[in-house]
Amino acid sequence: MAFYRAPLTDMRFVLNEVLEAPMMWAAMPATAEFGAELADAILEEGARVTEAELFPLNQTGDAEGCHLKDGEVSTPAGFKAACKTLAEGGWLGLGGNPDYDGQGLPKMLTVAFEEMLYATNASFALYPALNNGATLLLDQYAPDPIKQIYLPPMHRGEWLGTMCLTEPHCGTDLGLIKTRAEPLADDRYAITGSKIWITGGEHDMVDNIVHLVLAKLPDAPAGSRGISVFLVPKFKVNADGTLGERNALSCGGLEHKMGIKGSATCVMNFDGAEGILIGEPHQGLATMFTMMNYERLSIGIQGLGLGEVAYQSAMDFARERLQSRAPSVPAAPDKPADPILVHPDVRRMALNTRAWNEGGRAFAAFVGSQLDCVKFHPDAAAREQAADLVALLTPIAKAFLTDRGFAATVEAQQLYGGNGYCVEWGAEQYVRDARIAMIYEGTNGIQAMDLVGRKLFRNRGAYVERFAAVMRADLASEASDTLAPFQRACEQELARLEAVTAALLERADGHPEELGAAAHDYLQLFGHVTYAWMWWKMARAAEHGLRQDGPAGAAFYQAKLSVGRHFIARMLPHTLALEQQIHAGAEPLMALDEAAFYPD
Amino acid sequence: MAFYRAPLTDMRFVLNEVLEAPMMWAAMPATAEFGAELADAILEEGARVTEAELFPLNQTGDAEGCHLKDGEVSTPAGFKAACKTLAEGGWLGLGGNPDYDGQGLPKMLTVAFEEMLYATNASFALYPALNNGATLLLDQYAPDPIKQIYLPPMHRGEWLGTMCLTEPHCGTDLGLIKTRAEPLADDRYAITGSKIWITGGEHDMVDNIVHLVLAKLPDAPAGSRGISVFLVPKFKVNADGTLGERNALSCGGLEHKMGIKGSATCVMNFDGAEGILIGEPHQGLATMFTMMNYERLSIGIQGLGLGEVAYQSAMDFARERLQSRAPSVPAAPDKPADPILVHPDVRRMALNTRAWNEGGRAFAAFVGSQLDCVKFHPDAAAREQAADLVALLTPIAKAFLTDRGFAATVEAQQLYGGNGYCVEWGAEQYVRDARIAMIYEGTNGIQAMDLVGRKLFRNRGAYVERFAAVMRADLASEASDTLAPFQRACEQELARLEAVTAALLERADGHPEELGAAAHDYLQLFGHVTYAWMWWKMARAAEHGLRQDGPAGAAFYQAKLSVGRHFIARMLPHTLALEQQIHAGAEPLMALDEAAFYPD
């Protein structure tokens, strides 16, 4: 009774009409082959494969979960076969370096495909999401012989990668890790320690699992400046790429979780397992950030995908559900009651969900476009500007997309009434599956600290100024009657953001607790401003499409403008509260004695 | 690893110092016996019994769930024995009429005990919650011989009651029910139909189950004006109160739900089951509202109780958890990291949770005080004023307490990082258990419609005027430096509410969709204003306690003022957004064609 069709019309609209991806690709030699037609064929086939292979396994996978027996982890029925099908279609190495059997797709396209993955099966989607981040890290930091051995089978989805960071006593504070690496002969290391919450740490879907493990060398400085990254495969790999003996690592347990039950969340024990140092010694945190930043956007897209499937499923339910009469005139007088969408409050929930989803889709694609620019653009200045925007927007993408994605699943669940709480409709699974996205990959609080600390305070607002300049340049061009409300809202909200930023920078000088106190609300404010901008872009493209009889069709453009107006009128005002809360500063938070928080 | 101790100090503070319950009880003959000392003894014993008997069954009950076999429903291990223990202690008939073996406690006390029930075991709490509403209805509407037979065993917890309203095609819109009642001899009726989502419809804890069932008589008018209430016992009851043969009703299935898994949510099939008409024919909806209003406040308290246990458990976790260093100076330089409460953003989450809980506790007790006034006050004008406030505040209590309770469980879960997502810590269960409270007993959207429709528009704002007069009279008395910010906030927010109310009433004339469009945000605004008022009351009592060396102690009063300041500075500003959203009106919601909502 869950319902999903990949929102291809909206994806095409965002890519081709809002962000003009084909024009951008054409301007960069490395992406010149990707025209609208090829992109479209990829998205259509991506929709087909995820809808056919993954969506049917979503509820069954949740019910069955993963199981550990004699050290082996079994994934839910159908996962292994689906993994093979997707791997053979090249879908698991979509953004990978083509020199090593990757598909080399622009990020703007892989973002759209990732949304389909998460929407159809968030548990499954995590295995390739980790793999993609791992290959990205190896592509950037591993020496060529290692790349030659490891990257092709990982890009082909025959092996999958993991990220082993957390230990029982430290998640956020990785400087505290205890896992150690002892040098062996031949540039090899013996890795010993225990890692927890390792997604896909052990499972039955592929021939080998490639762990990227944070550990400390014997001479490591204390804290986070003493961490290194090691590649530690489940099966040792011979020089010719064939598999050797089992490495000294094992799965010590599976977590029982609220959701994403088809994703194997493992305790991984490394007992002198052989590994290879990747990147510079003690620079592991910086090295790992290549992977972490990848995962942060990916997890943001988890929120988006789940918000989308939650919306579609709820609307599919609403299609048939009749309760009570419309406020003025019955809409279906021949039926015992009207469809629930006659009720303004039901529409409010539906429009909230939809406005977050559509704003989020544009935002994720926009971040993708900047990542493509960083990677492929021939002009250094363009690359630098894009890199600044990516640095600034990554924590927002992770936290805001997942906060809004979770809110969307909760709002969608509410649309069902009591059915939303019952397992068979699927709505409650989306809520459970979305909840983790606000927690892992750096909690959303950590993202907010990253935003106000590294991305704002450290450069005294330089990234924000850059963002404001780009946004303002985008706004200046036009303002028809239709677009004026979007333009005004953007100008007003950007001015608010700038004023809040300036005040915060001043207040935080010598008072670092002011950054932490403002962090969450500042990220929320920034997210709202960014979405307002995305809605401006979409409104502009929709108006253009209406005038030019664009490919998405008049009804689509009208609906887009209508949802956008709802966003401006009934969701964006939240910034008024955020502004005031940020100005309240740290004092109300810090006044209470620590002891007074704890229960007796 | 979950942690709960009934917040007795805060409960005493609210009862004795904020609402001055003992003085109120002394002024009413029926409650004159309840002094502070007796009330305290009851709360202490209530805390002991719920902590000892129910809390240990909460996680195990979630894991085990209820099971249906051969028509019999088994509750989780320990539930039956706990039910017996609580019944024997008189805890299951706490507010019941003492003429029929009830304990006759004031509502202000039963509200506090209900919070403990829901906090320690929300699944278990629902069985007595339904029973209490059922006995209230019977006490008001059943003829005396029926009361003599049914009420004593129900008050003693030997039998338990249920509420059978929903059918598969109708939850909100009860006018659509199909269950029918055919007259038999001796004022009996044969009830035939199928009901769903019946909490405690069948289980193994007690000897008999007393269903209150909505059904239609043969001559019933169409719609909600043709519904009647019938008492339909699982076992027929002889005139002497002994149990006769099994009635023609059975459990046809159990729902698989997101949470409250220890609560048996039953499909109940009535196959010509014998029942007794309760109240007037065709007046069943009005009759049932006695029970529904009881349940609405009770479900609000579910949100509160779960918010409280979620907060306490999270803080118990925080006590031991060390991650990263404080922004300025390390708080625990001798340890590898600082306690997480040094971080402003962690405090933000903790204070949000706590401010909702403490505001909610005062609010629930305040509604309880008005219910006591309605029931016991000797003066008719006082009863009438209290009745108006109860009518106005009941939908707010149900919806706002459950919205905030759910938000509190989500915020508390976030405090754990990844541990919050893992089952063994218990945090995720609170989220799942709290989610239903926004849905059942009339969705929170329905509560909002009740507020703007029946409680606002129908009397042209008369209840709101009354509320404003009472609140303003309460404010006028004093404004020390400490209290001035609370006073100012209340004045400002009350003025905002009045202005929004006036504008809405005007806009809604002839445009009923304006009510629905404003409903959710109006209820949220009203909830914020009400909590601001409660925080004013608490701040006043805390200041008084500080001056007079009050019983809760200086640290408690200081903390109370501190949490209150956080509420005013960092949570109340949400009203700015709500005001603007309400003024946006219905147009942005109603513009989009219904068909445009549905996925392709």
UniProtKB/TrEMBL annotation, chains A, B:
Return the broad EC class: oxidoreductase
Tell me the superkingdom of the source. Bacteria
A single GO molecular-function term is: oxidoreductase activity, acting on the CH-CH group of donors
State the family it belongs to: Belongs to the acyl-CoA dehydrogenase family.
Q: Does the keyword Oxidoreductase apply?
A: yes
Instruction: Please state what the protein is called.
Output: 3-methylmercaptopropionyl-CoA dehydrogenase
| Reactions catalysed according to its record | 3-(methylsulfanyl)propanoyl-CoA + oxidized [electron-transfer flavoprotein] + H(+) = 3-(methylsulfanyl)acryloyl-CoA + reduced [electron-transfer flavoprotein]
**Keyword Oxidoreductase among record annotations:** yes
Which coenzymes or cofactors are required? FAD
Q: Which residues form the Acyl-CoA oxidase/dehydrogenase middle domain?
A: 163-271
Question: Which keywords annotate this record?
Answer: FAD, Flavoprotein, Oxidoreductase
So what does this one do? Involved in the assimilation of dimethylsulphoniopropionate (DMSP), an important compound in the fixation of carbon in marine phytoplankton, by mediating the conversion of 3-(methylthio)propanoyl-CoA (MMPA-CoA) to 3-(methylthio)acryloyl-CoA (MTA-CoA).
EC no.?
Answer: 1.3.99.41
User: What Pfam families does UniProt report for this protein, alphabetically?
Assistant: Acyl-CoA_dh_1, Acyl-CoA_dh_C, Acyl-CoA_dh_M, Acyl-CoA_dh_N
Q: Where is the Acyl-CoA dehydrogenase/oxidase N-terminal domain?
A: 80-158
According to the entry, every stretch annotated as the Acyl-CoA dehydrogenase/oxidase C-terminal domain falls at: 283-451
Domain named Acetyl-CoA dehydrogenase-like C-terminal is located at: 468-593
